From TrEMBL:
This is Bidirectional sugar transporter SWEET. It holds the Pfam family MtN3_slv. Keywords: Membrane, Repeat, Sugar transport, Transmembrane, Transmembrane helix, Transport. Belongs to the SWEET sugar transporter family. Its main location: membrane. It comes from the Eukaryota. Mediates both low-affinity uptake and efflux of sugar across the membrane. The chain crosses the membrane at residues 6-28, 40-58, 70-93, 105-125, 131-153, 165-186, 192-211. GO terms for biological process: carbohydrate transport; protein homooligomerization. One of its GO terms (molecular function) is sugar transmembrane transporter activity. It is a multi-pass membrane protein.
């Protein structure tokens, strides 16, 4: 009964995490359409890739006992494919400086993951020690991934607007954190439960802020400082009609040309 419950929670956790990992598709479809990253950060996707790589390895039979953590392998394997796709799209459409920044983040992460895999496979000779070693590094990666939205939380508190923090991202994060925390507790695996014990309160904070500021209008429009592109386009268009801005710029340009 306990194993069936754990498997059921793992399947639900997979579904919630799949929605969470797939959510940035809206952002990157916009990037492809505009052929411009518009200055948003790639850090959350790099940290997510780091987390997915480590926990995929953690769930494989080399580290875990047989396939006891099969749900962890499946969702993090899918996460690796999605995050690599997002990072490649970002890399392709970013500026030369942005490409350099992405490379400076991705290369060390790949090296750490490779080193972790080699050390855990050849230095440690039992599953318990391998899980402790890989799980400890994975714990750091997970906490870093869950802490990355704190930049957005700070921006929401500062502007008193949730345009920087879409509801569905916060909700899916909360759902995935709760389910994987339950899975880790049912498995008696602190390396799966602990990151979500830290992530769940952060997700609750995001939901509370959303409920508090969701009706507030946009106060400041600073596109270059937005941490992501997943904001409400319709509200922005209502607040700042682009056609009017273009017309005003055209009038100013014509006046300047006549004066010269």
């Amino acid at each position: 009964m306990g194993d069936m419950l754990r498997l059921a929670v793992g399947v639900m956790g997979n579904a919630a995490s799949m929605l969470l990992y797939a959510a940035p598709m809206l952002t990157f479809s916009r990037v492809i359409k505009k052929k411009n990253t518009e200055g948003f950060s790639c850090v959350p996707y790099v940290l997510a890739l780091f987390n997915c790589c480590l926990y995929t390895w953690y769930g494989l039979p080399v580290v875990s006992y047989r396939w006891e953590n099969f749900p962890v392998v499946t969702i993090n394997g899918i996460g690796i494919l999605l995050e690599i796709s997002f990072i490649l799209i970002y890399f392709w459409f970013s500026s030369p400086k942005g490409k350099k920044e992405v490379a400076n983040m991705v290369v060390p992460i790949i090296l750490i993951c490779v080193a972790t895999g080699i050390i855990s496979a050849f230095v440690f000779h039992d599953h318990r020690r391998r899980k402790v070693f890989v799980g400890s590094i994975g714990l750091v990666a997970s906490v870093a991934m869950y802490a990355s939205p704190l930049v957005v939380v700070r921006q929401v508190i500062k502007t008193k607007s949730v345009e920087f923090m879409p509801f569905y991202l916060s909700f899916f994060s909360f759902l995935a954190s709760c389910l994987w925390m339950a899975y880790g507790l049912l498995s008696h695996d602190l390396f799966l439960a602990s990151p979500n014990l830290a992530g769940t309160p952060l997700c609750i904070l995001q939901l509370i802020l959303y409920c508090k500021y969701r009706k507030n209008p946009i106060k400041d429009l600073e596109p270059k400082k937005w941490p992501d592109l997943e904001y409400n386009d319709e509200k922005i268009k209502q607040e700042f009609p682009l056609d009017e801005i273009k017309e005003s710029k055209l009038i100013v340009t014509e006046n300047l040309s006549t004066k010269t």
